[in-house]
Amino acid sequence: MAKSDVKDPAPKAASEKRTISKADVSVAEKLVELYRLQHIDSQVDRIKVQRGELPLEVQDLEDEVAGLQTRLNKLQEELAEVEGQVTDRQNMIKEAKAQIKKYEGQQAKVRNNREYDSLTKEIEFQNLEIQLAEKRIKEAKVSIDAKRAVVEESRSKLEERKKDLDVKKKELDDIVAETEKEEKELQKQSDAASKHIEERLLSAYHRIRGNTRNGLAVVPVERGSCGGCFNSIPPQRQLDISSHKKIIVCEHCGRVLVDDYVVGRVKGA
């Protein structure tokens, strides 16, 4: 009898791997991943605390410098406008004096009193214009002196704030330079850890973190108390936490609670 050319198919179990979804992971593993993410994010928070209020101080100084610069520009524009008015009136005085000289020359050639009186009135009018212009110039010069004093004061304050800003920026840049590499690596680890957590838990984690002052969303049970708010946890609830059958949150602060096993899995890794 001839042998069959058909070969037995290989078992599927040997060639295929079962895909496990995030939802299929055990509660214990979910807690480990959550606490791992918290441990990484807390290190990022520590770096940000090292910077303290410097970023806010830099931002405040930048806003103040921008405001002072705007005010200085406006003052300089006002000063230039008043100085321009003085120049215009000085030119007007020159023109008025030229007119007076012309009218006086014409008076020597008039034929009758009527022409003479008309020229005399023109001369008087130009003299009044000169007096008014000189008065306005005097007032403007007082205003110019006052505005120059304010401009100088504003410029001095602006330069002082710019120096303060440079100092604060250097302080911030130095701290950022020291921690930038570490922070980027930790952020990369945080992003990687987040991918192992199902969306529902991850959203809850970020919501709790946003509602706490210290950024702790997942905390260990320490000496029978919540590691976040330090309120006592009943013995039965502590047993529920250590059983890893479901995710337990603190009744007082809403943080996710983990036991020593979870902490050891993360910190001992």
In this structure, how is the largest beta sheet organized?
3 strands, mixed
Q: Give average pLDDT, whole number.
A: 88
Give the helices and strands as they follow along the chain: HHHHHEEHEH
- The CATH class of the domain at 51-193: Mainly Alpha
- What proportion of the residues is helical, as a percent range? over 70%
Number of DSSP-assigned strands: 3
The CATH architecture designation of the domain at 51-193 is Orthogonal Bundle
CATH structural fold name of the domain at 51-193: Helix Hairpins
Give the strand order of the largest sheet, numbering strands 1, 2, ... along the chain.
2-1-3
* DSSP strand content: under 5%
- The number of distinct helices, counting runs of at least 4 residues, comes to 7
Query: Low-confidence spans: pLDDT under 50, at least 5 residues?
Result: 1-20
Question: What is the terminal-to-terminal distance?
Answer: 62 Å
Any idea what the radius of gyration is?
Answer: 42 Å
Sum up the overall morphology in one term. Answer: rod-shaped
Return the structural class.
mainly alpha
What does the model show?
With about 270 residues, the chain is mainly alpha-helical. It has a domain at about 50-195: Helix Hairpins. Helix content is about 70%, strand content about 5%. It has helices at about 10-15, 25-50, 55-105, 115-195, 200-210, 235-245, 260-265; strands spanning about 220, 225, 255-260. The chain has a three-stranded mixed β-sheet with strand order 2-1-3. β1 and β2 form a beta hairpin. α2 packs across α7. Residues about 1-20 have low confidence and may be disordered.
